[in-house]
Amino acid sequence: MLELKDIRFAIQKGNDEVALLDQIDLRVPTGHFMAIVGPSGCGKSTLLKLIAGINQETDGSIFWNGRNLSEEDDLEASEIGYVPQFSIAYEALTVEENIESAVRLRASTGSRQAFHDLVDQVLASTGLAALRDRPVKVLSGGQRRRLSLALELVTDPVLLLCDEVTSGLDPKSEHEIVELMHQLSRNEHRLVVNVTHSLANLDLYDSVLVLDAGRIVYHGPPRALEHYFSVDKAEDIYQRIAKRKTGEWAESWAKHREAYYATMPQKAVSAPETSVSAATPGAITQFFALFFRRWKIFFRDKGQLYLQLAILVIFPMLVVIFELEGVEQVQRLSEARPDSLEAYNAEREVLTFNLNLGGIVSGLVMFQVILLTLMGSNNSAREIAGERFIFEKEKLGGVRPGVYVASKVAFLSVLVLMQSAWMTIFVQSISEIPSQTMLPHFLLLLLVNGGMTAICLGISSLAKTADQASLLSIYLVGFQLPLSGAVLALPEWAGWLTRPFISAYWSWAGIMDGMERDYYRYIKEVTDTWLGPMWLCFAVLGLHVAIGLFIAYVGVKRPKWEN
Ligand SMILES: Nc1ncnc2c1ncn2[C@@H]1O[C@H](COP(=O)(O)OP(=O)(O)OP(=O)(O)O)[C@@H](O)[C@H]1O
Ligand SMILES: [Mg+2]
Predict the structure, then answer these.
(1) Which of 21, 219, 335, 395 is least crowded, fewest Cβ atoms below 10 Å from its Cβ?
(2) 0.85 exceeded by the pTM?
(3) Structural domains in the chain plus CATH codes
């Protein structure tokens, strides 16, 4: 039995408190199918989120089989299934792969056999068995709703909460989905609640809750609806409700309420035997499920795959192409070095030549660094924002935010490692940058790519949409070059103000510090910017990585349901 006692949910608007839901009192038994209907904006979704535990009530209490959910005794993630208004599956994966992934993340099945049995059973109970190999992107609206329901059934939830799962469907598909939800509610331990605009198929529900302006105006059997509101057909009730002042219908319902609840079956249903799937899987299982799923999606999304490959190959080539002339000079100079030139004029020529060379080496490295920051932003800007609602659902279903971020770090580390390694090897094999040793050089490139990837992952976790995250990340890359001080010198004070935030600067400065000393002298001559010591560069870049990941974790932990 689900019981809501005098629930109020209010939000702060400026200085005023606005109640989105008020005086919500209701009781619903298990083995029951309830509709929540009402005009748009009346608070249906808000009420559903409150029951799901996504919204926290301002006043009042919620009980489930006598457990007070408003206090500490929350329902387990595996006990609730919440099907939100938006689509929540990976388009590139098939129906079966999506269900398998939900099982891995949310249900502990024990054996391989039990795992496959559960997947088959969920497919069968939602009528998706024939579509198991179909990618989600080709599914029809009705099939998608079935999948959304299927994903919630992997834990055999006692409370199945559905928001507008029939909206936008043709009447036949709508009937089929309502019928499916009705079937799912024929289980003495389960309560199915469906929020809907539609007043069709009402006879399939056990009860209908009508909301208006955040208050209950009716809750009872669908067949009594017309009589209660004195209308000929259910479709007319909204007009009828609108005819009386807000609150009047709610007052009348308050008078009838107890009479209705007195007729309702009161039998308490004991909690179900713990099913195989009751416990949420451990962190390691979830980590590998997320990690391998990410790679599967990566290889299936051909656009992303080719873009990554193109960037990996072309960016290092760009560095050497643009510097080709300079590269020849680097080599020519190093050959012409023996001091066979003694005349004064020739000495001056060498000086000019070497200063020019310092500029080329510095520019070459800065170009490498900037391209790696661009790769970093491309790696991660959309990573979380692009699947935010799916993750939000999975988090509600028991996926740990820390594990989710860790799976992203593992996936992105592979990209970062490949990009930085290839950038270092390719450019070095052609232009022979005169670093004292290559290891610090490589590590500084790795860190600038990793730092930018981590920071853009942080941005991605905070952004409202993937497009917003991309745009912000690109701006961040765009500012790297001008604010690094490597190309144009900033006023001293401005340099100190911006430098701490510019990853490109620290990578470049660290690499400069590691140049062969002859070269370093000339680089210093042509650079107006302060060059930090290498250890500091490592420290700052390490800090950038850590801060980026910390922001990502905080951003992911924060609930984000609305746009
Ligand atoms: N977090 C929030 N902050 C401010 N206003 C909110 C918030 N959540 C909901 N609202 C407002 O509360 C009202 C009820 O919203 P809700 O989404 O519950 O409506 P609904 O009945 O589900 O409508 P629809 O049928 O259009 O989906 C709306 O006016 C909405 O704008
Ligand atoms: Mg809604």
Answers:
(1) 335
(2) yes
(3) 2-263 (3.40.50.300), 283-557 (no CATH)
